[in-house]
Design brief:
The complex is a heterodimer of chains A (526) and B (251). Chain A is of the alpha/beta class and 526 residues long. Chain A is built from 20 helices and 15 strands. Chain A has a nine-stranded parallel sheet. In chain A, strands 1-14 form a two-stranded antiparallel sheet. In chain A, strands 2-15 form a two-stranded antiparallel sheet. Chain B folds into two domains: 74 residues, D-lysine 5,6-aminomutase beta subunit KamE, N-terminal domain (Defensin A-like); 154 residues, Cobalamin-binding domain (Rossmann fold, 3-Layer(aba) Sandwich), CATH 3.40.50.280. The two termini of chain B are 44 Å apart. Classes of the chains: A alpha/beta (526), B alpha/beta (251). Chains A and B meet through helix 8 and helix 16 of A and strand 1 of B. Bound molecules: cobalamin.
C-alpha cells in the first residue's frame, strides 16, 4: 500500500477516452458541415454590424437580423446563406450596408426577392463584409485585453476563483447585487437569464427590468453589467470576470453579443439545451460550433453544463456520463479552435448527502476530473439538488464542497447558497456564501499538495471505476452514434430524438453554393 | 416540563413559554450604532421584547446585515387554527393498487405536465415515473394508473387537449419556479383555459411544487395541492378517494 499526491488513474484508459471522443467529435463535425441554422445566419449579419431592432406590436423590439433572415428564408434562399443575399442586395441597389438596413426597417426592401446579381461581384463584396466584421470583432477584443492588463488578475494569484450568480430579473438591481458580491470577495459574476429566454427565437433588445428567475441576456444588459464590474474592479484594482449564458435558440447570437461587450465566460453547451430545454439537437450542435469559434476569437472561456446531469439521474451510478460528456465537449471545443485553457468543463456530482462516505465519493470525482483535465480551469459546483429549506444545514453542505474544491485545485468554484432551495439569492445569502468560501479557500490554500491518496483505498477505487465505466460508455456511444445515444437517454436519463425539440424548423441543409467565409477566417477546424 | 399554553402558543428556546425567536435581515444602510438601534427598535415595534442584536456587519455596497434575538410577546391560539388537510391516512402502493382495481374496476387515467416556461421535471417525475421518490414507486408502476407524462414547458391548451384525447380522469401539474409568483399566475392560467372551454369540472385537478400548499390549491380551484416531501402513494391515495367520490361510492 502506498500513498501518492495523485490518484492512480490509467493513462492508457484516458488516452483511449480521448481517441473515442475524437471520433464522436467527427460525427458532430459532419453535422456542422452539412447544416446551418437561422441562428447562425442571423449571427453572420450581426457580425457585419446589423445589431439594431425595430418596434413591433406591443412595444416588442424585433432585431433587424431576424427580419432579413426571415425574408431570405421565405423565398427559399437561405441555402446560399444570409451573407450572400445581403451582399446581393447591396450590389443590386449599389448601396451600403446601412442603406440596406434602413430600407429593410422602412419596409422598402425585401432581401429575399432582390434580383440575383453576377455571382463573382456578390462573393467579392460578401468576403469584404465578412473580413471587416471579423476585424471589427478583433479590435473590440484587443480593447478588452488592454483593460484587463491594467488591473490585477485574480486568476494569476489563486485558485479556485469564486463565482456567484445574480438573478433578480432587473438589470439595475442586478448591478447593485453584483457590485455587492464583488465587495464580498467574488471574482466572477454570472447573470442568469430569464426563465423563458432559451426558447425565444430572437434576442431581446435594450435594458430590461422584467425577468423570471433571471434577467434577459441583451446586448445593452451586457454593456451595463460590464461597465459596472469594470468600475468596481477599478476601485479594488482587481479584474472582475463576467459570465452569461449562450444556450437556447439564440446561442450563437448571444456569443457574438458577449464577445462584442467583453464578457469573459459563457455557459456554452449544446447538451444543456438538448436535455433541459428540449432544444433540437442538430440545431444547437450546429449553433454551438459557431458560438465556440466566436469564443475562441474573443478569448472567452466556455463553461460546460455537465454539472446538471446529476439532477435528473442518480449521481453515484451515473458519474461515467459526466466524464464521457466532458471528453466529448473537450473535442468539440478543440474543433472550434478553443485551447484547453479556455474550457471550464463543468462538474458536480450531487450525491445524496445522507449516504455513508459521500464526502469521500465527492472527493474522488473532484480529484479525478482535476487529473484528467489538468489544463482546464474546471468549474466545480456545490450540491444543489439535495438542498432544502433548512438553510443552516445547506450552509454546512456548501462548506464541505468549498473544502473539496479548494483541496482539489478547481479553477472556478460555483458557490452554493444556503437558500438554494427557496429563492434566487438575496443579498445576505450571497454574502454568507462568500464568507463561507473565503474562510475555507483561504484557510485551505495549498492543502491539496500536503495530502495524498491511498493507492488501493476507497477513493482511488471509486475514481477508477468511473473512468472504467466512461471508457465503456464512450465506446457504446461511438458505436451507436452520438445522436442515437442522446435519443436513448444516455445522458442525464433524458431522451431527445434528433428530429424533435424546439427550433427544429430553423435547421437546414446547406446548398451547393452555400456562402460562409467566416469559418475559414476564424480558423475553424471543421 | 412546564405546562404548554395552547391558547397562547409561543416559540420555545430553552424554557417553556420563553417565546425565543431569531431574526436575520439586511438593512439598506451602512452598519453604525444608529443602524443597530434602528434594527432593534424595529423588532421591538413588531412586538418582541428582550431584543438583542447579536451581530451586525457590512455586506455588499453599503448594507448592514443583522442577527437578532428576541422574545415573542403574543402567541397564537393553537386550538383555533384551521387548515385544510389532505387525509392524513397513508396506504402503501400494493394496497392502493388493489383497491383501485377492485373498487373502481379500471385504471385511473392521469395526464401530468409542468406548464408555462418552467423546465423543472424532477418533482413531477418523482410522482409519475416508475422509479418514484425515495423508495416509494411512482404512478406508472401501478396497474391502477394509466399515466401520460408530458414533461415541462407545456402550454395549458396543449395539456387540456391531451387530457381530453387521453380521456383523463385527472390532470396533474407541477410548478417549481416561484419568482414574482409566476407559479400562481401559471396555476390560474390552467384554470382559466379550462373555464373558457367549460371544462372546469371535467377533471380532478392536482398541483404540486415546493411552494404549493393544499390551502393555496383549493383557493385557486384545484382539488388538491402537494408540497415538499410528497410521495407518489400520497397522490395515489388521494386520487383513489376522489374517484370513489366521483363515481358515487363515497360521500
Ligand atoms: C434540479 C434543478 C434544476 C434543473 C432542472 C432539471 C429538471 N429536468 O428538472 C436545471 C438545472 C435544468 C434547472 C434550471 C433552472 N432552475 Co432550477 N433548480 C433545481 C434544484 C436544484 C432542485 C429542484 C429539484 O429537482 N428538487 C427535487 C424534487 C424532487 O423536489 P420538488 O421539485 O420540490 O418536488 C417535490 C414536491 O414539490 C412535489 N411536487 C413537485 N411537482 C409536483 C407535481 C405533482 C403533480 C405533485 C402531486 C407533486 C409535485 O413532490 C415532489 C416530490 O416530493 C432547485 C433548488 C432546490 N434545491 O430546490 C433549483 C430551483 C428550483 N431552480 C431555480 C431556477 C430559477 C431555475 C432557472 C429558471 C434558472 C435560469 N434562469 O435559467 C432554470 C429553469 C429554466 C426554466 N425554463 O424553468 C430556482 C427557482 C427560484 C424560485 N423560487 O423561483 C431554484 C429554487 C434554485 C434557486 N434558488 O435559484 N434547475
Amino acid at each position: 500500500m502506498g500513498f501518492s499526491a495523485t490518484l492512480p488513474l490509467s493513462k492508457t484508459k484516458i488516452t483511449r477516452c480521448r481517441a473515442v471522443a475524437h471520433s464522436i467529435g467527427d460525427e458532430v463535425a459532419t453535422l456542422v458541415q452539412e447544416h446551418s441554422t437561422v441562428g447562425v445566419e442571423r449571427t453572420f449579419l450581426r457580425l457585419l454590424g446589423l445589431n439594431s431592432a425595430t418596434e413591433q406590436e406591443e412595444g416588442l423590439l424585433y432585431p433587424t437580423s431576424n427580419f432579413i433572415v426571415d425574408q431570405v428564408e421565405r423565398t427559399g434562399r437561405l441555402v446560399e446563406g444570409s451573407l450572400y443575399w445581403v451582399a446581393n442586395a447591396m450590389v443590386a441597389e449599389n448601396c451600403s450596408l446601412g442603406d440596406v438596413e434602413a430600407a429593410v426597417l422602412a419596409g422598402k426592401l425585401d432581401v429575399g426577392t432582390v434580383k440575383p446579381q453576377p455571382e463573382s461581384a456578390v462573393l467579392k463584396l460578401g468576403r469584404l463584409l465578412a473580413r471587416d466584421g471579423v476585424a471589427g470583432l478583433r479590435s473590440r477584443v484587443k480593447n478588452r485585453s488592454k483593460i484587463k492588463r491594467k488591473l490585477k488578475d485574480p486568476a494569476k494569484l489563486k485558485r479556485p476563483l469564486l463565482y456567484q450568480i445574480v438573478a433578480t430579473g432587473n438589470i439595475y438591481e442586478d448591478v447593485l447585487q453584483a457590485k455587492s458580491a464583488v465587495m464580498d470577495g467574488i471574482e466572477i459574476v454570472a447573470v442568469i437569464r430569464s426563465t423563458a429566454q432559451s426558447l425565444l427565437d430572437y434576442v431581446p433588445q435594450g435594458a430590461t427590468t422584467e425577468g423570471f428567475g433571471g434577467t434577459y441576456a441583451t446586448q445593452e444588459n451586457f454593456r451595463i453589467m460590464r461597465a459596472a464590474l469594470d468600475e468596481v474592479g477599478q476601485e479594488q484594482n482587481k479584474y472582475i470576470r463576467l459570465t452569461n449564458y449562450a444556450s437556447g435558440l439564440c446561442m450563437a447570437e448571444i456569443s457574438l453579443l458577449a464577445s462584442i461587450e467583453g464578457l469573459d465566460y459563457l455557459l456554452n453547451d449544446a447538451m444543456y439545451g438538448i436535455l433541459f430545454r428540449d432544444i433540437n439537437p442538430v440545431r444547437t450542435l450546429v449553433d454551438q460550433h459557431f458560438s465556440r469559434l466566436l469564443c475562441a476569437q474573443s478569448g472567452i472561456c466556455i463553461m460546460t453544463g455537465e454539472d446538471n446531469y446529476m439532477k435528473t439521474t442518480d449521481a453515484v451510478k451515473s458519474g461515467d456520463s459526466v466524464l464521457a460528456s466532458e471528453f466529448i465537449n473537450e473535442r468539440t471545443a478543440l474543433n472550434a479552435g478553443l485551447p484547453t485553457s479556455q474550457m471550464a468543463l463543468g462538474h458536480a456530482m450531487e450525491m445524496n448527502p445522507q449516504y455513508e462516505k459521500v464526502i469521500l465519493m465527492e472527493l474522488a470525482r473532484a480529484q479525478m476530473t482535476r487529473q484528467i483535465f489538468p489544463d482546464s480551469p474546471l468549474k466545480y459546483m456545490c450540491n444543489t439538488k439535495y438542498k432544502t429549506g433548512d438553510i443552516m444545514t445547506s450552509h454546512v453542505v456548501d462548506a464541505v464542497f468549498n473544502l473539496l474544491g479548494a483541496c482539489t485545485n478547481q479553477g472556478v468554484l460555483l458557490l452554493g447558497m444556503p437558500t438554494e432551495a427557496v429563492h434566487t439569492p438575496w443579498l445576505a445569502d450571497r454574502s454568507l456564501s462568500a464568507r463561507n468560501a473565503r474562510y475555507i479557500v483561504n484557510g485551505a490554500a495549498g492543502m491539496g499538495e500536503e495530502l495524498g491518496y491511498r493507492s488501493d483505498g476507497f477513493i482511488a477505487k471509486f475514481a477508477q471505476k468511473v473512468l472504467d465505466d466512461a471508457v465503456r460508455l464512450l465506446e457504446r456511444i461511438e458505436k451507436i452514434g452520438f445522436l442515437k445515444a442522446i435519443e436513448r437517454g444516455y445522458f442525464a436519463d433524458v431522451r431527445r430524438p434528433a428530429t424533435g425539440g424546439k427550433g427544429a424548423k430553423g435547421v437546414f441543409r446547406v446548398g451547393p453554393k452555400y456562402f460562409n467565409p467566416f469559418y475559414e477566417m476564424m480558423n475553424s477546424r471543421i | 416540563m412546564n405546562e404548554i399554553d395552547y391558547k397562547n402558543l409561543v416559540p420555545y428556546g430553552d424554557t417553556t413559554g420563553d417565546g425565543a425567536v431569531q431574526f436575520s435581515f439586511t438593512f439598506p444602510v451602512e452598519p453604525s450604532p444608529k443602524a443597530q438601534e434602528a434594527a432593534a427598535q424595529m423588532v421591538r415595534e413588531w412586538g418582541f421584547s428582550d431584543v438583542k442584536v447579536a451581530h451586525m456587519s457590512s455586506v455588499g455596497v453599503g448594507f448592514a446585515y443583522f442577527v437578532i434575538f428576541g422574545r415573542a410577546q403574543r402567541g397564537v391560539n393553537f386550538d383555533k387554527v384551521e387548515v385544510p388537510e389532505l387525509t392524513g391516512q397513508r396506504l402503501n402502493y400494493k394496497e392502493i393498487d388493489k383497491r383501485i382495481l377492485e373498487e373502481i374496476g379500471r385504471p385511473i387515467r392521469v395526464v401530468g405536465a409542468n406548464t408555462g416556461f418552467d423546465a423543472h421535471t424532477v418533482g413531477l417525475d418523482a410522482i409519475l415515473n416508475m422509479k418514484g421518490f425515495d423508495g416509494d414507486v411512482g404512478l406508472e408502476r401501478y396497474r391502477g394508473f394509466y399515466t401520460v407524462n408530458m414533461g415541462s414547458q407545456v402550454l395549458p391548451a396543449e395539456l387540456i387537449e391531451r387530457a381530453l384525447k387521453e380521456k383523463a380522469d385527472a390532470i396533474l401539474i407541477s410548478k417549481i419556479v416561484t419568482q414574482k409568483d409566476i407559479h400562481i399566475a401559471d396555476m390560474k392560467d390552467v384554470i382559466l383555459h379550462l373555464r373558457k372551454r367549460g371544462l372546469e369540472k371535467r377533471f380532478i385537478l392536482v398541483v404540486g411544487g415546493p411552494r404549493v400548499t393544499h390551502k393555496l390549491a383549493l383557493e385557486l380551484g384545484y382539488d388538491a395541492g402537494f408540497s415538499i416531501g410528497s410521495y407518489p402513494s400520497d397522490v395515489a391515495y388521494f386520487l383513489l378517494e376522489k374517484m370513489l367520490e366521483r363515481i358515487g361510492k363515497k360521500k
